[in-house]
Write a structure and sequence with these properties.
By secondary structure, the chain is an alpha+beta fold. It is built from eight helices and 24 strands. The mean pLDDT is about 95.
Length: about 425
């Protein structure tokens, strides 16, 4: 079955459309009820995860006290910012590209993702400039001083990603773990929000495409096309949005044992235009393949499903500060990849605004922090493996909230769903 997007948009304008989150559709399926092609017009899906393929383009003036020909090197809060392409000769204006995975020279575990959140929060950031003449200048700016600040995705929103296990006999430093990866397949990490992931709900990209309006870190933006390393088996997308309209709680930096990474959030409305979309939205976690990768060799060694990661687990970490024993070294605080755990006097505090619900704290101190993260169950070299998940690099809790907000915004008319300009070949 097929239908054009135009009539769906007209139904939305008349407030007659059925708009559901992808989670709501899957809940109906799990309850044993049927969902027909005509029962839903639009599905809202979302993901919040580490997305390395991220960069920002910033343009703003700097106060130097004297004219300089052009900048040759710039850092913002110690993070390298690539100058160009416009030289802005003798104008005192910087055009910069900042990578989300860039690492600060001055602050440990601070990188581009942290910087982007600081900018969106309106925090002042320190800009250091080296000119072609070799002179050095410093200034402090905020987003109010930046006429142009846009975030770009080069490889985001994979249909689904992977789980990782270290099968080697030695620890491994990797971007896929908040600490060094323990050896001998004793722990697992994972990425991907499973059944609520946007491209999972439209894997052939029949409902969304070039020009489709989305929410990127809470700001209205647009899909530009397919991303780098995109393939029919694992499609992903590129997009852009204005940082001035973004919400800081949807973004940030995440410390890994290989350095800081960048967190980005997507919320996408998928019109149910044909059977490919209809079949995809009805697919629940237990039907979605989850590849298990060896973190050391970076090869696929097994396959399970996203039910191992997201079915009957805790998507939010429970916090019981009264059970804190006041250890000399607080391992959760020391190793939290978001620096969301700290002490106010002798009282432990969890900052829910920055918490990613990765769950690492619950594996380090199960008295104060509690979360069932699930485990990966698969066969490997003739053995039945059951490897506990210790870190999640996707935040399904916040993704569900974003999908619900997008659903409500479509219904009340504050988010205007549009048709694509051009199809994308996955």
């Amino acid at each position: 079955m097929e239908r054009e997007v135009g009539p769906i948009l007209e139904k939305i304008n008349r407030k007659e459309a059925t708009v559901l989150t992808s989670q709501e559709v899957c809940d109906i399926i799990d309850a044993g009820d049927d969902v027909g092609f005509g029962d839903v017009d639009v599905v809202t899906a979302a993901t919040r995860a580490i997305m390395s393929g991220t960069y920002a383009v910033l343009s703003f003036p700097v106060k130097t006290g004297e004219k300089f020909t052009r900048a040759s090197a710039v850092t913002i809060n110690g993070v390298d910012s690539h100058v160009g392409p416009c030289p802005n000769e003798r104008l005192g204006i910087l055009d910069l590209m900042v990578f989300g995975t860039a690492h600060s020279h001055d602050r440990e575990n601070y990188g581009g993702g942290h910087l982007f959140r600081d900018i969106v929060e309106g925090n002042p950031v320190d800009v250091d400039v080296v000119t072609d003449e070799g002179k050095k200048y410093s200034d402090t700016v905020s987003i109010e001083d930046m006429p142009y600040a846009r975030l770009f995705a080069t490889r985001h929103a994979f249909k689904n990603y992977s789980a990782f296990v270290n099968f080697s006999p030695s620890t491994v430093s990797t971007i896929f773990h908040a600490t060094t990866f323990a050896p001998d397949a004793t722990e697992a990490t994972l990425s991907g929000c499973g059944q609520i992931n946007p491209v999972k709900n439209d894997p052939q990209l029949h409902g969304i495409g070039v020009g489709s309006r989305i929410l990127l870190n809470g700001a209205e933006g647009f899909i530009l096309g397919s991303g780098t390393r995109s393939s029919p088996e694992k499609p992903n997308l590129i997009a852009t949005a204005d940082m001035h309209s973004m919400e800081a709680d949807y973004m940030g930096g995440f410390a890994t044992s290989a350095g800081p990474e960048c967190i980005v959030s997507w919320a996408v409305a998928v019109p149910v235009v044909d059977d490919s979309v209809f079949d995809a939205i009805r697919q629940t976690d237990g039907e979605i393949p989850l590849p298990v990768m060896d973190a050391d060799r970076r090869v696929k060694v097994a396959i399970t499903s996203y039910a191992d990661a997201w079915k009957d687990v805790d998507i939010e970490v429970a916090f019981n500060p009264g059970k804190c024993r006041g250890c000399d070294v607080c391992e959760p605080m020391k190793k939290c990849p978001m620096e969301s755990i700290y002490f106010n006097g002798d009282k432990v505090v969890l900052n829910r605004h920055t918490c990613f619900n990765c769950g690492l704290c619950s594996t380090l101190c199960s008295d104060v922090f509690r979360a069932d993260l699930g485990s990966l169950k698969f066969d490997y070299e003739g053995k039945n493996m059951d490897v506990p998940i210790v870190v999640r690099q996707s935040d399904r809790k916040r993704a569900l909230i974003m999908a619900e907000k997008l659903r409500d915004s479509i219904k009340d008319g504050t988010f205007i769903l549009n048709g694509m300009v051009e199809r994308i070949s996955p």
